[in-house]
Amino acid sequence: MKNLRTYAFWGTALGSLAFAADAPKIDSGDTAWMLASTALVLLMTPAVGFFYGGMVRSKNALNTIMMSVAALGFVGITWAIVGYSLAFSDGSGILGSLSWAFLRNVGLTPAVIAGTTYTIPHVVYMAFQATFCIITAALISGAIVERMRFVPYLIFITLWSILIYAPIAHMVWGGGFLGKLGAFDFAGGTVVHINAGIAGLVAALVLGQRKDFGRQAVLPHNVTYIVLGASLLWFGWFGFNGGSAVASNGLAGLAFTNTFLAPAATLVVWTILDILRTGKSTAVGAATAIVVGLVAITPASGFVSPMNAIVLGAIATFPSYFVILWRAKTNLDDSLDVFGGHAIGGITGALLTGILAQKVFNGVGDGLLYGNVNQFFIQALAVGVSTAYSAIGTFVLLKIIGAFTPLKAPVKEEGLGMDVTQHGEEAYTNGEGAILVNADIATPNIKTRAVGGTD
Fold first, then answer.
1. Hey, where are the domains in the chain?
2. Domain 25-208+222-404: which CATH class?
3. What is the C-alpha separation between 420 and 427, in angstroms, rounded?
4. How far apart (Å, rounded) are the C-alpha atoms in residues 134 and 144?
5. Which of 53, 205, 335, 433 gives the lowest tally of CB atoms within 10 Å of its CB?
6. How far apart are CA 127 and CA 326, in angstroms?
7. Does the pTM of the predicted model rise above 0.85?
8. pLDDT of amino acid 1
9. What are 291-329's pLDDT values in tens digits?
10. How much is the pLDDT for 455?
11. Percentage of residues in the chain with pLDDT exceeding 70?
């Protein structure tokens, strides 16, 4: 009997050791890479602020930057409270549950998402995904800058992150039906860029035009900011795409390399198109090209070869370039071409992923060019679902908010500038300092001049 108990003890102990050896563990290298990637992606949101801020008139520069900075707080906290749970916890094919609300059960153990166990703490995965939700909401602002009131904007992005972003993230990444169908979206072509671009288009249509739209040239006030913002975006995007491998491994290296090559190709082709069309190459065009290339490679970054990344970046130039040219001739006041850059770039990238993907590089599956015709149609379905859901959801949400409070600033406030009327500050004071007394437009008592005048 004593021997039997001894054998049982050692059998149990050895079994426990074997189980422990097989159990997923936190990997310090993977965790370090994901911490760095999270910081890189977080940097992208103020980078968007600079990119957008340089494109608007000086009297609206601060407001435009604030639309990005505010998302860091309002969307970030909303994500921790409820958004993350709805996006990534187990649930239906469309939406997760509230099992991780208020970060309940989101701790230091390995993250298990949609049946996959990662070697990083769950809380780090949550933070990484938070940065994606934040920048997606901030991207929308480019379509409605210089005219949307700030408080309704804050309400909009907070609710949008829950009602629009979280369901699409769940459908694609969190165990929802698009992911189970096999849709390829390595880092957010559908979840981030199509989603934001379509939402921006709808928001621009709902708000209507700026008062000066079509009547006078609305030119960028600081091209240096635009180039700085684009450069910081490219820098941060290495974490955006490389971090989406959720490990420090070869897949991260592939995504990292593709994030370098695709925008470089877009930049070359865009510059050539500009020179052929106008005889000049502009810095604004170069910065825009970089962003379009980054958007297009995002869904494909972990699925295509480096040479195919160059091909993808080159091809993706054409749809966005010509849509942006077309939009300028229409009555659509998508202020900073969020639709042309992000929606069109994201759609192009998502579809090209279904054509150029190679199993030999990604270990998952091939695209149409390599014999898997179905992958292209799965990609098209993901594009269609994300487009429809974002468009309808954004429209309904804006209409509901608009029923309680005006979305658009009055003409006089818009003329004076959103910096003063929404924030009581100016981006530029000409060295005189800002003396802010009263920003009531009906009875102006503002002792500082809004740069750009009242138009």
1. 25-208+222-404, 409-455
2. mainly alpha
3. 9
4. 17
5. 433
6. 39
7. yes
8. 41
9. 999 999 999 999 999 999 999 999 999 999 999 999 999
10. 38
11. 89
Q: What's the chain's length in residues? A: 455
